[in-house]
């Protein structure tokens, strides 16, 4: 099974994260950031990834360190669970409608970090969550599981719907990209994905 568990402790956060790429979408999420709990639950459910996250962070300062560091840990877990990426589809994309929002997500597990985030979130907060932290999470993720990740907002006015569409779309696109194609081969003419 393609699994990985990481424990990462800094002066700002203490995180334990477990990932199974070949799961059923089972989750246990306690990040200390309510909105992020919700988004990670949706991400895992739509990707059919089993995901456990426990984070104790300095949320008395704000949520920045917790959100960014969870993105880092999730990226490391994906990278390690994928190994040399032998036999994966490599590419995945999904066009996700979330009420009035329409989000396109496309990924290439290329081994090169590139985030093209074209979300236009109309509010600075969703509840108590700073919406600028969505990009911080995504940057932590793609820098530690190097991939090209494109998120494009084609429609949407409601901040919650836009971000929810992005996390669901990312789960669905990654589900396609990490799926095994049965070839057992590295999906690159170079013979390596780094």
Task: Trace the largest sheet across and list its strands.
Answer: 1-2-4-3
List how many beta strands DSSP finds.
Answer: 10
Largest sheet: 4 strands, mixed
Percent helix range: 25-40%
* Overall mean pLDDT: 97
Low-confidence parts lasting 5 or more residues at pLDDT below 50?
none
Number of contiguous helices? 4
By secondary-structure content and strand pairing, the structural class works out as alpha+beta
Distance between the termini: 22 Å
The geometry reads as globular
Tell me the β content: 25-35%
Radius of gyration: 16 Å
Helix/strand order, N-terminal first: EEEHEHEEEEEHEH
Can you describe this structure?
The chain has 194 residues and is α+β, with helices and mostly antiparallel strands. The chain contains four helices and ten strands. It has helices at 34-47, 64-82, 133-144, 159-178, and strands at 3-9, 13-20, 27-30, 50-57, 91-98, 101-108, 114-118, 125-126, 129-130, 148-155. The strands form three sheets. It has a four-stranded mixed beta sheet with strand order 1-2-4-3, covered by helices on one side. Strands 5-6-10-7 form a four-stranded mixed beta sheet. A hairpin with a 3-residue loop joins strand 1 (3-9) and strand 2. The protein is globular. It starts with a strand and ends in a 16-residue tail after the last helix. The model has no long low-confidence stretch (mean pLDDT 97).
């Amino acid at each position: 099974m393609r699994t990985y568990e990481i424990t990462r402790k800094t002066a700002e956060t203490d995180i334990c994260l477990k990932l199974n790429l070949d799961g059923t979408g089972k989750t246990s999420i306690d990040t200390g950031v309510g909105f992020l709990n919700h988004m990670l639950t949706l991400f895992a459910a739509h990707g059919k990834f089993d995901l456990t996250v426990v984070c104790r962070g300095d949320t008395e300062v704000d949520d920045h360190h917790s959100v960014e560091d969870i993105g880092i840990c999730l990226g490391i877990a994906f990278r390690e669970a994928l190994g040399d990426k032998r036999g994966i589809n490599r590419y995945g994309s999904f066009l996700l409608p979330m009420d009035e929002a329409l989000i396109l997500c496309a990924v290439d597990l290329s081994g090169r970090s590139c985030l093209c985030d074209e979300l236009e979130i109309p509010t600075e907060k969703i509840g108590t969550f700073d919406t600028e932290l969505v990009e911080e999470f995504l940057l932590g993720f793609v820098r530690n599981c190097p991939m090209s990740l494109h998120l494009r907002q084609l429609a949407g006015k409601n901040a919650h719907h836009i971000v929810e569409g992005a996390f669901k779309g990312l789960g669905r696109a990654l589900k396609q990209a990490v799926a095994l194609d049965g070839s057992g081969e590295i999906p690159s003419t170079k013979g390596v994905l780094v």
